[in-house]
C-alpha cells in the first residue's frame, strides 16, 4: 500500500510540474499578446469580455470532471486574471466598503489579480468609470427575493456608460459575532435593509425581540459588531473573514436560491460572444396602446425578453421609461430589425449594451 501511495505522490509531483510549466507558458504568451496589441494600437483594450466568456464556456464544455464545471471555470478565471495582469492590470470600482457582496461579485468576475477599489455610492462607481479613473465598475441591479435596485436603473438615465457584462452571485447570509460577544445576551442585530428582508422569517423565529438596526452595508454591520458585546451582524463570508468574526449560524436566508445579479459597466462596446444579452431603456409616448406597441416587435421577431421594469421618467409627472433585458446581441440582423421598429414607435430608445450572458 505504501508503494502505491508513493507512486501516486510522484505522479502528482510530475503533474504539478507540468501544470506549472504550462501556466508559465500561457503567461508568456499573454505578454506576447500585449506587445502585439500595443504595436498595432497604443490605446489597445486588453480585457475582452466576449473572449473571456468564450474561453470559459469552452473549458466547461471540455471538462469531464471530477471537478464540476463551475469550479473548473473558477480556476481558469484566476489563471486568466493573473495573465491579464501581466498585460495590463484591470482597475475595477465597486459599491463598497470592503467585504460587501459587490466586492465578492467583482472578484468572481475579474479574478483576484484585478485591482478593486471601493466606492461609497453607486453614483460614484459610475463617475469613476466615466472619468476613466478605472476600467470597469460593478453595481448590483436585482435580487431574486427583493427585486430591482432602483438606484442603479435611475443612474443609467443620466449616464452614457455601457453595460459590458453581468455576474450572478448566490447570496448566503450568516449570523456573525465577535470573540467578545455574549451569545446568550444578543439584543441587537446590524445589517443592510435588504439582508434583513431576505432573512426576515429566520430572525422572527430565532431573535424575535432583538433590535434590528439597518446600516449602509453588511460590511459596516460586521465592523460595528467588533466593538460591542451584545450585538450580532448579518453578513457574508468576505465580511466575516475581513473582520475576524465567528459564524453562529450559517445560511440564514429565507430562500435557498437567494441570488443577486450585478452589472459590469464600462465605456466599450462588446462584440458578440455567441450567447449574449442586451439591455435597453425606452421612453414611450403617453398614449393608449403604448405598451403593446413596445412589446409587439419582440413577439413577432421571436426575441426572448427576460426582464421588463418601469421607472418614473425625468421628463414629466406620470411619464415612465421601460428597462428591458432580452436574449441576443444588437448586431444580430433580426435583433437590429426589431430595435429599428421599436425606435420608430418610441419617444426615445438607448441601447445600454450587449454583453455575454454570465458564465458562472
Automatic annotation (TrEMBL):
SMART domains: CM_2. One of its GO terms (molecular function) is prephenate dehydratase activity. Keywords: Amino-acid biosynthesis, Aromatic amino acid biosynthesis, Cytoplasm, Isomerase, Lyase, Multifunctional enzyme, Phenylalanine biosynthesis. Pathway: Metabolic intermediate biosynthesis; prephenate biosynthesis; prephenate from chorismate: step 1/1; Amino-acid biosynthesis; L-phenylalanine biosynthesis; phenylpyruvate from prephenate: step 1/1. Residues 1-91 form the Chorismate mutase domain. The keyword Ribosomal protein does not apply. The lineage of its organism: Bacteria, Pseudomonadati, Pseudomonadota, Gammaproteobacteria, Oceanospirillales. It catalyses: chorismate = prephenate; prephenate + H(+) = 3-phenylpyruvate + CO2 + H2O. NCBIfam families: CM_P2 (TIGR01807), PRK11898.1 (NF008865). Residues 91-267 form the Prephenate dehydratase domain. It comes from Halomonas llamarensis. This is Bifunctional chorismate mutase/prephenate dehydratase. Gene3D superfamilies: 3.30.70.260, Chorismate mutase, Periplasmic binding protein-like II. Pfam families: ACT (PF01842), CM_2 (PF01817), PDT (PF00800). It comes from the Bacteria. It is found in: Cytoplasm. Its EC number is 4.2.1.51, 5.4.99.5.
Amino acid at each position: 500500500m505504501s508503494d502505491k501511495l508513493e507512486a501516486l505522490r510522484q505522479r502528482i509531483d510530475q503533474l504539478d510540474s507540468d501544470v506549472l510549466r504550462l501556466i508559465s507558458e500561457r503567461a508568456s504568451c499573454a505578454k506576447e499578446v500585449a506587445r502585439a496589441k500595443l504595436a498595432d494600437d497604443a490605446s489597445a483594450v486588453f480585457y475582452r469580455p466576449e473572449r473571456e466568456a468564450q474561453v470559459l464556456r469552452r473549458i466547461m464544455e471540455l471538462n469531464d470532471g471530477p471537478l464540476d464545471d463551475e469550479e473548473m471555470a473558477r480556476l481558469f478565471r484566476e489563471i486568466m486574471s493573473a495573465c491579464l495582469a501581466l498585460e495590463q492590470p484591470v482597475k475595477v470600482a465597486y459599491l463598497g466598503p470592503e467585504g460587501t457582496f459587490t466586492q465578492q461579485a467583482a472578484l468572481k468576475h475579474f479574478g483576484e489579480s484585478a485591482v478593486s477599489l471601493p466606492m461609497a455610492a453607486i453614483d460614484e462607481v459610475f463617475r469613476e468609470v466615466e472619468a476613466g479613473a478605472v476600467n470597469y465598475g460593478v453595481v448590483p441591479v436585482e435580487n431574486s427575493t427583493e427585486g430591482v435596485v432602483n438606484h442603479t436603473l435611475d443612474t443609467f438615465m443620466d449616464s452614457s456608460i455601457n453595460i459590458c457584462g453581468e455576474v450572478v452571485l448566490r447570496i448566503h447570509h450568516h449570523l456573525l459575532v465577535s470573540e467578545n460577544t455574549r451569545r446568550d445576551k444578543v439584543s441587537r442585530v446590524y445589517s443592510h435593509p435588504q439582508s434583513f428582508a431576505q432573512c426576515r422569517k429566520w430572525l422572527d423565529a430565532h431573535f424575535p425581540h432583538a433590535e434590528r438596526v439597518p446600516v449602509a452595508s453588511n460590511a459596516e454591520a460586521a465592523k460595528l459588531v467588533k466593538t460591542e458585546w451584545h450585538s450580532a451582524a448579518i453578513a457574508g463570508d468576505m465580511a466575516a473573514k475581513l473582520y475576524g468574526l465567528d459564524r453562529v449560524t450559517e445560511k440564514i436566508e429565507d430562500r435557498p436560491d437567494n441570488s443577486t445579479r450585478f452589472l459590469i459597466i464600462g465605456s466599450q462596446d462588446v462584440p458578440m460572444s455567441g450567447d449574449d444579452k442586451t439591455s435597453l431603456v425606452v421612453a414611450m409616448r403617453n398614449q393608449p396602446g403604448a405598451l403593446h406597441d413596445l412589446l409587439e416587435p419582440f413577439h413577432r421577431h421571436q426575441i426572448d425578453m427576460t426582464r421588463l421594469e418601469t421607472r418614473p421618467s425625468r421628463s414629466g409627472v406620470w411619464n415612465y421609461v421601460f428597462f428591458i433585458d432580452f436574449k441576443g446581441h444588437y448586431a444580430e440582423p433580426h435583433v437590429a430589425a426589431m430595435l429599428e421598429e421599436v425606435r420608430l414607435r418610441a419617444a426615445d430608445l438607448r441601447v445600454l449594451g450587449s454583453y455575454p450572458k454570465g458564465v458562472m
